[in-house]
Write a structure and sequence with these properties.
The structure is a homodimer of 352-residue chains.
Chain A: E1 2-10, H1 14-32, E2 35-40, H2 44-51, H3 57-65, E3 68-73, H4 89-99, E4 104-110, H5 123-126, E5 130-136, E6 146-149, E7 154-162, H6 163-179, E8 183-188, H7 194-206, E9 214-219, H8 220-229, E10 236-239, H9 241-254, E11 262-266, E12 271-275, H10 292-305, H11 309-325, H12 330-333, H13 341-351
Parallel strand pairs in A: 1-2, 1-3, 3-12, 5-10, 8-9, 8-10
Antiparallel strand pairs in A: 4-5, 4-11, 6-7, 11-12
Helix pairs in contact in A: 1-10, 1-13, 6-7, 8-9, 10-11, 11-13
The structure holds 3-isopropylmalic acid (2 copies).
One 3-isopropylmalic acid sits between chains A (90, 93, 245) and B (191-192, 221).
Chain lengths: 352, 352
């Protein structure tokens, strides 16, 4: 097969980790007889510097024309974390999600047997954890009307959901549950919020279409607790944008391998794959960043965007092999030899 | 001194644990020469059963007239967790908070050395944890306009904050920080939400009034992570209603002693003290519920409502003694002798 993949390296360590994912993807393509054409485009601080805008139209066009988007990381300190900055990278992120229609953020949290002792949680709490969040990504309070009144003294943010928005996300949840252990948890705050009541009643009405799936409904505060207590009691979880933001980040650290966690953001037309970690500006150019989350995001890309599970499995296998053989960057080397970002990528590509 | 204390036992195990807190409070009062008059009133399922309303006016009057409110727990299964039930106990909770003006929910999370191995987190992560959340409790998305349009197909919830609401909560945060390690963390989502930007700019403007306090600003998703990674890196945290709901529950389980965690909800006129655990209907009447969280809530009451730190310290001391000597209910007895709810209360009262 032939693919065009939009390559959004971003800023910080983005370009370095993306390079390794490209190498590994090319090696997989070669092995299985595919041909990838990479289409680089600017985002984040790199795009702000070049054209004053974190998600320029030119980049959007590259993404729309591509079969998938592989994304590095954005968030340079000169623009990041400062809500009063005139242009902020996260505005680009939100715009990108909205314009590409990436309504479902797929975030697996799992453990690597060899890394289990890195978890802040005790072994018996974390062992066997293998859960997936589907976070709604283009609705809710992120995108509702927001502003000030009373001369700036009052601020408001509207959270809005339509039944159709809930249905398309929930459908993905049910379908994913059918391919796994057929357990689905709908996370809401239906005891307080009207949007949550819409979520709950919509999911309840869909249950009869998937009689094999066991659905539970839990309040977001209860899930925030149970994720720490018994993360391995969850399988597929669906939730709205803001709850998903908080809970997926919480979930990402329980496995102790946050630097290894991949993600996908998918819609009807477009699909984007990215590591969940940030752009670690301090590490830029030092050849120390861990490329594995980006490489595993490429695995998700083969599986989800191209429906090529064997290619995905080949990547996962070589990553496991690298971990087992200690071909790792300094964040995981624990006194042993630390390999460079590039060297880990080379090793993976050579061992596919 | 003489106090009138409104006694809202609630339902489930509420009445049993409240009885022990009453006993211990009376013992403390006797020892220090105070006189407490208890004013019982109905809430929750008990009130719905009696008068069809979870927070009746008659109860409100008792609370307003009292010097403090001691609250057990509510949430009977016949009304709880069912968003479509016509009357729900949590409506009573929200009404009570609003009518009593309890705008600040104070939730400490700390460890008991003897219970540290109950934490799901590894010892080195949790050791030394002693943090306090101040959660805004009468504003935000809980109380903004909510409803449906488009014939029920679209749901909305408005999140609204005024600068004055942020100021009064933040003021309590700065003041609390001044009595502790002078570190304050403002938790928001200022990269996305306008209400969060109002929170952040308001707190920033207050910094100069408290030059000794070091203020940090963190996004809610980052805090959800760090609470699991290094809970002992936090001291005082302030945040809005919904973020506080999620994060305080997350924080409550990291110490492994959720059943021991007290809380206070305070306003300008009224103060209410309650355990953070629920009403465990399954345990009702079995004399097995752990009364310590309610007893420690009474300690907070002496300290915060009556400004009697010695009395509070006396309660904390006897609780520590009970834990050390194994005078505990079955949730903590670990194969040793399990005492009944009442027996623990009797022991505490006798040993004050
Ligand atoms: C940067 C921010 C806008 C973003 C979000 O909240 O969605 C990030 O936290 C994420 O989860 O991708
Ligand atoms: C029952 C519910 C409305 C309540 C809340 O969300 O405030 C509870 O979770 C709490 O934290 O006291």
């Amino acid at each position: 097969m032939k693919f065009n993949i939009a390559l959004l390296a971003g800023d910080g360590i983005g370009p370095e980790v993306i390079d390794q994912a490209v190498k590994v993807s090319d090696a997989v393509a070669k092995k299985f007889g595919h041909e990838i054409t990479w289409k680089p485009a600017l985002t984040g601080a790199a795009a702000i510097d070049a054209v004053g805008e974190p998600y320029p139209d030119s980049t959007h066009e590259v993404c729309v024309a591509a079969d998938a988007v592989l994304f590095g990381a954005i968030g340079h300190p000169k623009y990041d974390n400062d809500p009063s900055a005139p242009v902020r990278p996260e505005q680009g992120l939100l715009k990108m999600r909205k314009k590409l229609g990436l309504f479902a953020n797929v975030r697996p949290t799992f453990t690597f047997p060899s890394l289990i002792d890195k978890s802040p949680l005790k072994r018996e709490r974390i062992e066997g954890t293998d859960l997936v969040f589907l976070r709604e990504l283009t609705g809710g309070i992120y995108f509702g009307e927001k502003g000030r009144r009373d001369g700036g003294e009052t601020a408001f943010d509207n959270c809005v959901y339509t039944r159709a928005e809930v249905q398309r996300l929930a459908k993905k949840g049910f379908e994913l549950a059918m391919t796994r252990s057929k357990k689905l948890c709908c996370v809401d705050k239906a005891n307080v919020l009207e949007t949550s009541r819409l979520w709950r009643e919509t999911v309840q009405a869909m249950e009869k279409e998937y009689p094999e799936v066991t659905v539970s409904y839990e309040f977001v505060d209860a899930v925030a607790m149970r994720l720490v207590q018994w993360p391995n009691s969850y399988d597929v979880l669906i939730t709205e944008n803001l709850f998903g933001d908080i809970l997926t980040d919480e979930a990402s650290v329980i496995s102790g391998s946050m630097g290894l966690m991949p993600s996908a953001s998918v819609g009807t037309e477009n699909q984007l794959f990215e590591p969940i970690h940030g752009s670690y500006p301090q590490a830029t150019g030092l050849n120390i960043a861990n490329p594995l989350a980006t490489v595993l995001s490429a695995a998700m890309m083969f599986e989800m965007a191209f429906n090529l599970p064997e290619e995905g499995a080949a990547i996962r296998e070589v990553v496991n092999k690298a971990l087992a053989e200690g071909i790792v960057t300094e964040d995981l080397s624990e006194g042993g030899k630390a390999y460079g970002t590039k060297e880990v990528g080379d090793w993976l590509a050579a061992n596919i």
